């Protein structure tokens, strides 16, 4: 199932702007942050609790990158202490749909992947 690329785009070419999208999606925490925000608006601490294993530094970097790319919106409320909430933008929600398909695929095929890894490790030993 190959989709015809728009004129001037070739994801396999280093200079293609679409490569940056693949870079963003492929980063370790991007998909998990998107999926967490698919559940609704969250504060930083809520996201950190929801995504087991992510450090404060990595969550901050990931959120900033997603905000820069227009996938996540950050809203600051003038409270004491300051309250900051993150939510998916419409663009982020559309990407999240694709990430959710990948999550479903992972759930459906994890046993096969683990079996393949074990066979590979046994053969390499």
TrEMBL record:
Gene3D superfamilies: Winged helix-like DNA-binding domain superfamily/Winged helix DNA-binding domain. InterPro entries: ArsR-like_HTH, HTH_HxlR, WH-like_DNA-bd_sf, WH_DNA-bd_sf. The keyword Transcription applies. SUPFAM superfamilies: Winged helix' DNA-binding domain. Keywords: DNA-binding, Transcription, Transcription regulation. The keyword Transcription applies. GO terms for molecular function: DNA binding. This is Helix-turn-helix transcriptional regulator.
């Amino acid at each position: 199932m190959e989709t015809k690329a728009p004129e001037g785009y070739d994801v396999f070419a280093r200079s293609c702007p679409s490569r940056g999208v693949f870079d963003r999606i492929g980063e370790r925490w991007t998909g998990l942050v998107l999926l967490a925000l698919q559940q609704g608006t969250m504060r930083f601490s809520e996201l950190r609790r929801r995504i087991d294993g992510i450090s404060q530094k990595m969550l901050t970097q990931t959120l900033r990158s997603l905000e820069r790319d227009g996938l996540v919106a950050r809203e600051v409320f003038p409270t004491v202490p300051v309250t900051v909430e993150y939510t998916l933008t419409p663009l982020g929600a559309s990407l999240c749909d694709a990430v959710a398909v990948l999550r479903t695929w992972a759930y459906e095929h994890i046993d096969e992947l683990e079996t393949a890894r074990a066979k590979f490790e046994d053969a390499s030993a």
